Amino acid sequence: MIEFGDFYSLIAKGPLSHWLETLPAQIATWQKGSHHGQFKQWFNAVDYLPAIKPERLDLLHSVTADTTPGLSEGQQLGIYTHLKTLMPWRKGPFDLYGIHIDTEWRSDWKWERVVPHISSLAGRTVLDVGCGSGYHMWRMIGAGAHLAVGIDPTQLFLCQFEAVRKLLGGDQRAHLLPLGIEQLPELKAFDTVFSMGVLYHRRSPLDHLYQLKNQLVSGGELVLETIVIEGDEHQVLVPGDRYAQMRNVYFIPSAAALVNWLEKCGFIDIRIVDVCTTTIEEQRKTDWMTSDSLAEFLDPQDHSKTIEGYPAPIRAVIVAKRP
After folding, report:
1. What is the DSSP secondary-structure string of 122-151?
2. For helices 73-84 and 155-167, what crossing angle results, to 10°?
3. Binding-site residues, please?
4. Membrane-crossing residues (predicted)?
């Protein structure tokens, strides 16, 4: 079973220490609970990976680790086989000892759109809500963050994160906890909170914004990235059963409406810093994610619409502060 004692020790003397009043019991409940039918297989894949200390580690420009001399073909094949067991890989890419994990999302493109507009992460404690495999957390560490904490209840993503961390030498600067945002108390301890690709999955988006606010220190920064539609501050799309084949999409506001929501929740210094259309080059099938992707979710005759006839995904980045 994946253990979290190192994380508890890490936060015991810092601004997150009061989290220890609730977190260990929540994790113990998770460890005793029912797990995905493939969890043991995923855990074994992580367990069988070699513990390697990279001689070259680049988290600033990518997530790349290598050693000199390079690994043998047999060693590479062993790592490749274990990592393939953890498919589908959605957020990345990763370059680990000559193995390129070409993920569904070019998450590096998103990061390049986000990072020029946010406060420096140097020395900061950051939270990544819905972090997936943890790709962006490693980029946050590369940008100077002191500690990156990710939360995501999906067990496959936890195993993917632990696999990458093992291949990065067991790096303790990033940690993923198998929790949802609704399980966090009002920590008020993070300098920066990221919520990227989460808001449209929440039944109550304003509650989500309040939950994010409650994790920030006074003056802390929220980085919110989500799907939006075109329109004025009154425009909000409420899709039917599916949006781009996703079932759990509830509210898609315009960027202007989202600014109003943030103001209503008490955020200040709200800025729309980037708006761009998601392309089939940024989200696509690969050898590491072989099921349908964005190309199959769009109208084949008109890529400006989803297969259901809604506006195709446009993603906005909004930066705001807690007073």
Report:
1. TT-EEEEET-TTSHHHHHHHHTT-SEEEEE
2. 160
3. 91, 105, 110, 130, 152-154, 181-182, 196, 200, 315
4. none
Report d(CA 22, CA 184) in Å as an integer: 9
- DSSP states of 7-60: HHHHHTTSTTGGGGGTHHHHHHHHHHS---TTHHHHHHHHHHS-----SEEE-S
Mean pLDDT, the chain, integer: 97
pTM above 0.85, yes or no: yes
Class at the top of the CATH hierarchy for domain 39-322 = alpha beta
| pLDDT at residue 1, rounded to an integer | 82
Nearest-10 crossing angle of helices 135-142, 107-114: 40
Q: How far apart are CA 213 and CA 320, in angstroms?
A: 10
pLDDT per residue as tens digits for the range 234-278: 999 999 999 999 999 999 999 999 999 999 999 999 999 999 999
Annotated binding site for carboxy-S-adenosyl-L-methionine: 91, 105, 110, 130, 152-154, 181-182, 196, 200, 315
